[in-house]
Amino acid sequence: MLNYSFGKNSLESQLDALGIRVAFEKNLTKAVSYADAISASNLPAFACQGSSAPDMAIMMAAAKRIKVGCSDFVLLGTGGSSLGAQAAFALARYRQSVGIRFHTPDSLCPFEMDYLFSSLNPSGTHILVVSKSGSTAETLAQLLVFRAWLEASVGAENLADHFTFITEPGARPLRHYGEALGALVLDHPADIGGRFSVLTKVGMLPALVAGLSAKGFRDGAERVCSSFSDQPAQSAAVVGAVLIHTLHQYRGITQVLIMAYADILRAFTRWQGQLWAESLGKGGLGTTPIRAIGPVDQHSQMQLFLDGPNDKFCTIITVPSLNLGPRIDGADSRAYGLDYMAGRTIGDMVTCESRATQDSLRLQGRMVREIIIDSLSEANLGGLFASFMLETVLTAHLMGVNAFDQPAVEQGKVFTRQYLSELA
Ligand SMILES: O=P(O)(O)OC[C@H]1O[C@](O)(CO)[C@@H](O)[C@@H]1O
Hints:
Elements: E1 2-5, H1 11-18, H2 21-40, H3 55-67, E2 72-76, H4 83-95, E3 101-103, H5 110-119, E4 125-130, H6 137-154, E5 163-167, H7 173-181, E6 184-187, H8 201-209, H9 214-230, H10 236-250, E7 255-260, H11 266-280, E8 288-293, H12 302-307, E9 312-318, H13 330-335, H14 346-363, E10 367-373, H15 378-399, H16 410-422
Parallel strand pairs: 2-3, 2-4, 4-5, 5-6, 7-8, 7-9, 9-10
Antiparallel strand pairs: 1-10
The structure holds 6-O-phosphono-beta-D-fructofuranose.
């Protein structure tokens, strides 16, 4: 279950106080008619992958194959080919549901790779290589290095059993490589962009390997999609997109903060950051995502959020945690003058700290939205994925930009190839 709130004062009264009620309503009408249009033409496939979709059987079989004798599961991929799976892995870690160790070297780092090789057990290592384009240099370089490392231990004849690939059909270096190896090569859906692919095989196969329910993720996403279709004007995605866009247009909001009060959502905030930045930063437009985790970032970034420029829209994601987690010893804390925490749980503290953060931000005149999920589950994480993808697409529509491309990053890739080939 995913709910949202703007605090004690109604959203309408806050819009009135800011003098943007009329502009909000106008943008809302535009967003709702776009929401109706995309609902009528079948909701975007990325957000609404049915749990009975034909790829379920393919993923289940692939996950079963990967798990045979697997002690270390390495996901090679970057950006949208890794971040969604990382968000899912965090849930599995918290559940302690599998005995497999997960490794997601999503950035290219010589030191990290050396360390990873020293910590892996080659015979129990399975490598899932994900790249929609099949040509991302970092992922391909990692693959080449991993193959040589693994071949030295398990032998060329056994390599295919240690690899699975996900990439688009067609002539692509990664596809060619996987097929030549004789490994399992699965199709990345051609009509779904990398950063929108978390509910496809890209995020769901790793989730299954981690012992999570892909059906659970997709059911949660479907629930969000149906309430988006049924009552768009009330959905978190539509209201969020309209509010952010209106505040950007009329009240100088240029940054969008996502602060999650659950460590487990740390990777989720990274996933959302890519989604937002790459989808909206176009042609001189865009708002900058900021990721934060509570309570820790109260002690690092909060001063700026509270007392720096009033240019941020703040989303606080919470999971009810009253009475949860270890309890603080009453006598011990009282003996040291810590009466305020005596007998409270760690969950009590986190709940109060999130409330304190929201109230402090509001006192400073910041616009704060709380998104509440009732538990840490596949369904709720799936719902968050769907909701934020819809919000991003709606925001792009309001801004008049294409959410689905990322033309500017290509130049850096061209330079990288050139500089590498020019190295002495
Ligand atoms: O899945 P691929 O094609 O390897 O791309 C990885 C990431 O790189 C980007 O293309 C940006 O360079 C992202 O959009 C994408 O998620």
